[in-house]
């Protein structure tokens, strides 16, 4: 039995999976804010899953953690997880001290990529395109994560595509993330709705011209990310996940439409069959926690 924990900005998802990778137990709890609270959240998640499985921390074959920010998977150190109030935290070491067993720590998007790859039963190459507050991708090659030379592989949200575009949080201007992310929608479409993308799509469906323009930019930005992933890594599958994936088939249809339009004007892009490579992660599936459980077994 493996244990996986996805520590999110507001919620933490923990799962126990068996030797086949099938989900056996799952719990969700609120994420604490700040260094000590994040560690305590993880310890509590282990205890809750332990109660359901009847296993102590040392009884699991492995324990893996997925968390936002820059993660050194070798040391378990986490940096710049700003939404958690964490600047620098030796998470792996602190949890090993509290639990008495080793813990593997990975970036949450990379963990989700591994979870999606397993859940969908894929082979070969896949990119998991996470559309949340920002945009990032995790790349899996033959069942294993591809991190690159310094672990930055997949940070395609910070590829500038418009020199005159909006200023990105990374300090560059016109990055893909500035048009295709939750923060991009919130900036362009202010609303009291807790899910701005839902409000944007509702307004677009009602005929609001500006909403349609913004939704069009969103689809073009996501399509651009798909094109980058295929042209640079030639992944066989691009799986869209993250908060914006809850828009479902409406979003996927818009992205497919952009990719198909590009194919009509470019025989080269048409030959790559981009629309057929793109799909959504199954709704409600705990891919990040599942991936964290699998990461723990590396």
TrEMBL record:
Transmembrane ranges, per UniProt, are none
What is stated as this protein's family in its record? Belongs to the ROK (NagC/XylR) family.
Know the name of this protein?
Answer: ROK family protein
User: Where does the source fall among the domains of life?
Assistant: Bacteria
């Amino acid at each position: 039995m493996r244990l996986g924990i996805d520590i999110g900005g507001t919620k933490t998802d923990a799962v126990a999976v068996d030797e086949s990778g099938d989900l056996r137990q799952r719990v969700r709890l609120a994420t604490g804010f700040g260094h000590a609270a994040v560690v305590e959240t993880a310890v509590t998640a282990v205890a809750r899953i332990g109660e359901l499985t009847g296993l102590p921390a040392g009884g699991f074959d492995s324990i893996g953690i997925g968390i936002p920010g820059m993660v050194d998977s070798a040391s378990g150190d986490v940096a710049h997880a700003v939404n958690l109030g964490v600047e620098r935290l030796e998470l792996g070491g602190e949890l090993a001290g509290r639990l008495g067993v080793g813990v593997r720590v990975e970036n949450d998007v990379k963990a989700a990529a591994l979870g999606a790859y397993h859940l969908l039963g894929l082979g070969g190459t896949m990119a998991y395109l996470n559309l949340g507050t920002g945009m990032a991708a995790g790349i899996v090659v033959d069942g294993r994560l591809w991190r690159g030379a310094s672990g930055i592989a997949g940070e395609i949200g910070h590829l500038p595509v418009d020199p005159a575009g909006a200023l990105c949080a990374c300090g560059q201007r016109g990055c893909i993330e500035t048009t295709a992310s939750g923060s991009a929608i919130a900036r362009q479409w202010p609303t009291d709705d807790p899910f701005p993308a839902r409000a944007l799509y509702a307004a677009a469906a009602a005929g609001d011209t500006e909403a349609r323009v913004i939704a069009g930019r969103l689809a073009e930005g996501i399509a651009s990310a798909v094109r980058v992933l295929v042209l640079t890594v030639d992944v066989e599958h691009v799986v869209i996940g993250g908060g914006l994936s809850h828009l479902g088939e409406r979003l996927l249809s818009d992205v497919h439409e952009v990719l198909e339009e590009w194919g009509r004007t470019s025989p080269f892009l048409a030959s790559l069959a981009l629309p057929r490579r793109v799909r959504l992660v199954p709704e409600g599936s705990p891919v990040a926690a599942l991936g964290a459980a699998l990461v723990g077994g590396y």
